[in-house]
Give the backbone structure.
Amino acid sequence: MRRTREISHFFYSQYFAEGLMITLGCIIPLLVCVYLGYANEGTLISFGALLIGLSDTPGAPSHRRLGMLSTIGLGILTYSLIVSINFSISLTTIAIALLGFFFAMFAVFNARASTVGTMCTLLMLFNVQHSVNAGNVWLNLIFVIAGGMWYMLISMWSLQIRPYRIAQQELAESIRYVADYIRLKADFYDPNIDIDKNYLKLIEKQVEVNKHQESVRDTLFQSKRSIKDTTKIGRYLTLIFSDIVDLFEQSLTTQYDYNAIKVAYSQYGVLVPFKHAILKVTNELDNIAYAINANRLPKPTYAFENDMNHLRESVEKLDKQGVNTIPLKKVIINIRTIIKYLENIYSYNSTNVGPNIPKEEIDSASQFITRDQIDWKKFKSNLSLQSSAFRHAIRVGVVLSGTYLTLNLINFNPNGIYWTLLTILVILKPGFGSTQERNAQRLIGTLIGGILGAVVIFTIDDVTIRFIFLIFFFLSGYSLFRINYIVAVMFITPYILIMLSFHGTDTLEMVTERIIDTFLGGVIAFVSSYVILPNWESFQFRDNMRSLLIANYNYLAQAIRILAGEQPTITAYKLSRKEVYIASANMGSTFQRMLTEPKWRQKYTQEVNRFVILDHILSSHAANLLTQVQDADMDCYSREHVRLLKKTLTHLRKSIALLPSPDDERKFDPDEDFPDLNVATSEDENSKLITEQLQFLSKISADLHKVVQQLVSRTVENEHKESINLTNG
């Protein structure tokens, strides 16, 4: 049943929808042209549709339209230039170097611009050989543009008839990732789990949660229409997303000293039932995600009352034995709160979309969107060796042009030149680890796909059946492109081989050539990432570390305003929370990339690992503290709370000061206006909980400060040694 639902979920998902749209955009014009006797023209139209289809990444309709139009416009300019000079190897080499660098620099703007740049580079590489453009080159351009416009028409039409479908699919996907995150949290209640390893998995999953939540924000909040729409669909999706974000934050607040919990309670056998109850919550989230993806109304599958009663009774038994059960009681409260969010989501339907969204949230919706505008000042400011994007762009330009020149000088096969350059373009990434991973995926996928394609061609003579396989491989490949790259390549390779077989190409020779070209391109990309301005994360992590500490400081500083009697606005609170999520995801990604680098470059992984885990604990406890502070009465607060909070923020401020930024725009201006409260005469239960949270936060922030000190001293020492070695050398 679960596997059947997983398969259904894939066919409802945005990934399959994207693959289907690209398939229709590419195959339909090819079929029509082949039927009319214009196979070559059909191939060009199909290629144009593929270029624009790959540039049509998820997001707001206006952004998608702009991305496709930009690809068409820049593609025309690129094509016009390259076909005008591709008779000359020297001129083409210079053009590849300059255009490769220019388009690679688009990464400084945003992910969509980077994709547009990649598609323009691909169009350039496709036309670098003069023989490719024999005949009327400008007529060929018209066919490519026609294919791009055809795909754009399909894409815009699908958005017009189902404007909220993409938002539904992306929301469903983000809910699934939240469920996976909470599953990892549930593993902490397994007495046999390795807690440190589970923390690393948790941080990795948080990176994915943040990526998908940002995508949902981009799709839903680009215009206020989403939460004002008279059809209520946009408002319905917005309310669910708001509850999911709050639910995710609540899961973050269930953060404890799991080693202490394991030691204290594993002997009583009460932890596993907690794990099972949390896993039921994740199954319920998967159920909601499936229903939203399938465009159905979610209906509950579990009644949690019996589970919660069982947990409460287990804790009461321990109470009677004189065991301190406060941590377990907190977990029960958090699980109940998460269940409440699930009940809220189930209460929304087509006639009742829940409470009205506050006007403040409607007016401030645009503030939650990460705006990566095309700012050429940003492009100019990154023209420095200090910029990882600049170093990568130089590497792309040098490697592509150098490979093109070298292969032409040794009279390499023209098709092999294109395939080798394409492999380099696809594999070469800004970070060494990403390049290494993509290299292995590409080579393995090509090997398996080449064998698969050869089997189909040698065993199936019927052209119709071959064509059916061609469509299947194409649809499967581009549906899995963003999910599993190695499987995508495994399907795209036989598609290309089958398509070329229709032109009478020798299959065995073709398979051998493609594997050799892929291997050659992979080796060149791998070596260049080592020797041409390598981009090691050991030189990059401090900026992300500083940003994360600042985000946590600003988030925790919300408590100052509450203690001072000011109630932060919903917008201010959620924006500061969002900044913590983004900064945490960036730091987590940086650490993951550090682990994929060569061992001799992994100088600080132990300290960064410690920092990432401590910061995750700090962020989680900060969320827990703010929840308690907001719910408690003003009478619960005392001067001791202010002192502990000040101590925590001071540790964070000192840590930030150890990581100065040369960028004036990122100067840190801390909030030092601490309220002067009365000395507490007695503490109730809420006040004690706040005190405990602040004491723990003070300890964690002090530990963080020590880790930052160790990191800074080690980096300074290593940089000093390297400078001495360079001088002596």
